[in-house]
Amino acid sequence: MRRALPAMLIVWGLGCGQPPSSVDGGTVPPDAGPSGEGPILLTSSPANGATGVPATTKIVLEFSKPIARSAFTIGANPAITFGVPVFEFEDTVVTLTPSMPLSVDTQYLVQGTMQDREGNAGTFTFAFRVAALDTTSPTLVQSAPTGMDVALDAPIVLTFSERMNPSTVTVTPSPAAKLMPPVWNEEQTRVTFAPSAPWKVSTDYQVIVAGADVAGNPLGGDITWTFRTLTPTDTTPPTVVAHAPGSQSAAPLNARISIAFSEPMLAVTVEPAISIVPNVDCAFEWSPAHDAVTCTPAAPLSPSTIYDVTVGTGAQDAQANPLAVSYPFVFFTGTVQDLVLPTIAKVTPADLATGVSRDATLKITFSEPMDVATQGALMLTGPVGVEDGTLSWNSAGTVLTWNPSATLPYGATVGWSFGPGARDIAGNPLVGIAEGSFRVIQTGTMDLPAVLDGHVTSDGMVCTTCKSLIVGDDTLFTRSYRALFSFDLNALPPDTTAITTASLNLYQSACVGSPFSKLGLLRADSVDFGPTIEPFDYSAPQAGSGGSIASSCMPRWISATVTSSVAADFANRATQQMGRSQFRIRFTGSLFPDAIADQVHIASHLDSDHAPYLRVTYEYP
Fold first, then answer.
1. What is the pTM of this model?
2. 344-440: which CATH topology?
């Protein structure tokens, strides 16, 4: 398979105008070896015909098959002196580095010979032109950070218009600040300076940049800029929420030490604040959210040893709040290393679970203690804000719990998975199934019609065929009316698990007299009068809570919230009331001592335009 050469490398060729020389010295005679197809040059860098080639370029050649090192020759016109060639990829790629920069604005012809390992010969030729002398000053094309509310650990990142001479580039912040050694990209066009201590809060900084490109041209253009660091809005001290290894069992000799915090931290303050006794030289690695750090020891831990770890109060969060108190913990080592890959042993809720509670937490149990920075590898998908939940570990470091910051929406599907950062305390990566999902309980609403209704009087009259039901009194001093309604909860979907809201809805069609001023408020009571309406149901005992349903006299729909009683009826449907939810409508006062009828008329189920109904919102898987 043909290998792609790195775009930044440039292939150099063999001499021209002089006999090609063997890499072992001497001149190679024309091919006199065995017959067969010889190797050919597949690619060269610089490519044949390339222009504007840097004077400091290397030559990289890729051949169609492995070549014999002793039979490889190369030369150039004008002459180029090369260092020792580097053979790679089973001797199919050769890299040659000129011992000094090439002549600027010069055309080079490169020639060479080679043989494969069976002695079949081949030749190659290509040409390129070195760029003219660079007299253009480089410019600073991008700088960071900029603007307001800059993070206190934000690095200075500079991008230049061309390759720079790193030894000439300087960065001077004002007010003065110490910076870590620069880190350059391979092309030497971008450099990063991290602060060795946090920037000062609420401070305006000016940064001055100086330097030159590889040709010695000084930096031109705008070489200064400013930024302002954040003003803290959080004054709550951070805390350590988990650590590993724990003290419950012996840690392996290749254990890593990890610490999780309650919020993102400033690495430049945390790392020097961590002390370990006996001493451990650490290579620190941070979680993507910067709320967990892992120390990878430079050498295996000592066997059968107690280690004391302390996170000091110098550790600061992203807004420069320090730990309120230091955080110490202890672990002890065993005698062996851990080479076993961890797996997920259990997940609650289970994968593809349905009907999960809206206040559920996700608990993931691992087969062994984990690096607590594993929490940074957990990715959650689902409704907006699902990633805002909190993560916590048990003391053994084997159970990771995600607690949503808000009640999960009905019907939401929450997915979870682990990225490559999930590892045990020895750094072994998580294997096996590392993803899943569950669906939160769903909700629906149904209007249940009255399956039975009627009115009953205090003196034993019953009407279940009346289109308009009476509540109140009449011209007889001794008679008052009450209305009764029955609804069948068995009409709800069979997978209904709970009732969340319920309202009784009736149509008040007319008033006679002054019922509300004489008889008080109209009230709905939860009762149990059975499968039929009988005279004695006028005084049926109240079975559950009720409430006011109306207080004024005008034709309109009236409603009472009856959630608690309907929920209780549903929960007890197997043993009580056979799945019925029943209500009695009455005035708080029964009779008024006059000969005038004071009544409210309510539509029954026979009034198809205004039939009573029970609106129920329910949960189901």
1. 0.69
2. Immunoglobulin-like (2.60.40)
